[in-house]
Amino acid sequence: MGAGSEDGADEIVTGTRSDLFRYLTAKRSEEYRAIVDLFARRLLADLSPAEVAEELRTAGIALTDDEVYQRCEKLEKWGNLLRGVRDTRATSVRDYHRGRSRFHASKLGGRLHRVAEEILAAGDGVQEVARELLGGIAASLERILTALAVPGTPDAEQIATEVTSVFTNQGVFDESVKEFYRYLNQILTRYDLAGEEYTQFKTMLLEYIELITADVSRYEPVVLERLKQVRAQSDRLIGVLASLPGLITPEGGQAERQPGRTAAEWAQLVAWYDGSHGRSGPETLRSAADQALRQLLANTKRMLAAAGTGLSRRADLLKLASWFDQADADTAHRLYAAAFGAYPARHLLAGPEQPNVVDGPSTSWWDAERVDVAISLRERGDRTARGRNSAVPDPGLTRQRLLEEAEREHDRRRLAASELVAAGDLHGAYLSPAARDLVLEYLARLLAMYRVIEKGALVMDADLALEVEFSPTAGRTMIKAPDGDLVIHGLRVTVAGFGVARSEEGTR
After folding, report:
1. Which of 155, 157, 159, 483 is deepest in the core (most CB within 10 A)?
2. DSSP states of 187-254 as a string?
3. For residue range 218-265, what is the model confidence (pLDDT) as tens digits?
4. DSSP at 9
């Protein structure tokens, strides 16, 4: 089976540098990485498939010579390897062609492999900022100025060494700062940060950022002043560096040079400190530090606010997960229902008064009317008020409105009470929904006072001047209404107005 059929879609080659990354995500990426590693970690490595297969077997990867050859061919198509030719002795035409098929790592393939292996081996923890390099940059700039001030021809080798040190140290410092703040951003966005972990992170953030900011503030003026002095002599400096032997490619072009050999690179370095092309590097560091501290304070407020999301529940969730892991199926279902309130939907109370209410205890939540949820609760998960405070309403108007509503409610209850008195014995009576609901209210009051009714009971309502008598019976009381029938088993209900006075002893 050919290499193309083994790797499927990996056979497609675009002819661009993006093909260099294919071996990292191919079907047999571990084998490809091991092969490239043999070439990338050596100088002038020129290996045949047989030599590669032998070394792979030593490392515990069992591949035949043919399989290694197929992998190397694929890596050659992707640009990670290049084919080399060396004269060899062979006993057959096949051995001759295979012996002449030798490979070595390409320039970009080797560079990519080194970077990829560093990323794969890197940890997720924090990395220290190379803040000590700022002092080294200042010292190197001072030595460059001293060498340029010497009468006659300066020492080009010494100046080249210091220039390379300046740009290398600046690059390492800049990258370490970015790596540190990327880690901070990763931690600050966590909502489960609490307890000892939060305390350690807070201490690290407050102390280490202060240390970095202090170092930058101390060395920034010195480095910037010396950079301006060096840039003033940039023409002479570049001329001295140009006097050193250079590398010419076989095509006759100039090879890639170390940084600091052009005026544009010096101008870019100066701009990092003085901000002539935008925000300076030190200013960006201070702004990032302020932003990190503000985010830390925001997380602290979130943890302490009673109306916010509250403290982290990470430990509780881990404990709950361990319970789920140890539970059987039935216990897991009960645990889920208890932890997340996943009980069957039931309408326990009628809720606020609304026009045209049709949802009852038997109405499914799928069919029930929608409930308006406040935007703050729906989008932010809290009820914290936003924006300006609203004007305080006039209490007199509110009082008047409440009195009017109470009067209307009282009138409705009196009308329902009159209907009950007119009906008398409620068995078989046809009542309005309001009168029927009033009967239910008295029934609830009765059941709250007595568990068992043996000799009958009387519920009196002085406000409506009603006497509601509940008498035990072997039958039932059926009350009809437009929206349904009410059946009360074991009780006969009779309603009368206040007529004959009753003593408290006669009220049961």
Report:
1. 159
2. HHT-S---HHHHHHHHHHHHHHHHHHHHHHHHHHHHHHHHHHHHHHTHHHHHHHHHTS---B-TTSPB
3. 888 898 899 888 888 888 888 888 887 766 656 656 667 788 888 888
4. G
